[in-house]
Amino acid sequence: MAALQDVHVRICNQEIVKFDLEVKALIQDIRDCSGPLSTLTELNTKVKEKFQQLRHRIQDLEQSAKEQDKESEKQLLLQEVENHKKQLLRKTTKESLAQTSSAITESLMGISRMMAQQVQQSEEAMQSLVTSSRTILDANEEFKSMSGTIQLGRKLITKYNRRELTDKLLIFLALALFLATVLYIVKKRLFPFL
Predict the structure, then answer these.
(1) Does the structure show a pLDDT above 90 at 88?
(2) In 10 A of CB 37, how many CB atoms?
(3) Per the record, GO CC terms (predicted)?
(4) Cα Rg of the chain, angstroms
(5) What is the rounded CA–CA span in Å between residue 29 and residue 67?
(6) pLDDT, position 25
(7) DSSP-derived secondary structure for the chain
């Protein structure tokens, strides 16, 4: 029975060391991770699973220690369990730091996405301004063209008004000449002696 307990204790110790190394490797992977948030979350989940497995093995080892027949072996194993618990506590702190790092990374990625959206909106606004400026320049050119046409129309109207005045004056003079001629002829025919 004691030999079986010794084998169980050795297996628990080996698994604890194995999980400890795996947790250290995963924490290093989290530190080195520069990829997307999903990869960081996946690594974080794996760390949590390994911590859970590590806790179970430490509990198994503690249970085995309590079942030991010899008091000296029992105390030695319980001391080893306490050491493992202290290391687990320090690693849990690392896990919380990794989670904090993950949260900060997620926040920074969110800020980065917001900044990208702002840049996109600024580009769209700039494109809209360029299009509006082009439209205004086209309208200005058309206005200048219309202004030239209006000036030409004004000159023509002024010229026709002068021509109309000249024509009226000529018609009036022609009518006056005609009336004077008619009066002269009537006077010579009716009053030849004058």
Answers:
(1) no
(2) 14
(3) endoplasmic reticulum membrane; SNARE complex
(4) 53
(5) 38
(6) 81
(7) -HHHHHHHHHHHHHHHHHHHHHHHHHHHHHHH--S-HHHHHHHHHHHHHHHHHHHHHHHHHHHHHHT-SSHHHHHHHHHHHHHHHHHHHHHHHHHHHHHHHHHHHHHHHHHHHHHHHHHHHHHHHHHHHHHHHHHHHHHHHHHHHHHHHHHHHHHHHHHHHHHHHHHHHHHHHHHHHHHHHHHHHHHHHH-TT-
Say how far apart CA 85 and CA 77 lie, in whole Å. 12
Percentage of the chain lying above the pLDDT 90 cut: 27
Tens-place pLDDT, residues 50-72: 778 878 887 887 787 787 777 87
Q: In this predicted model, what pLDDT tens digit does every residue of 133-192 receive, in sequence order?
A: 999 999 999 988 898 889 999 999 999 999 999 999 999 999 999 999 999 999 888 887
**Residue whose C-alpha is closest to residue 8's, from 63, 72, 70:** 63
User: What is the distance between the alpha carbons of residues 12 and 56, in angstroms, rounded to a whole number?
Assistant: 10
Cα separation, 114 vs 122, in Å, equals 12
Rounded Cα distance between 38 and 125, Å, is: 33
Domains of the chain: 1-116 (1.20.58)
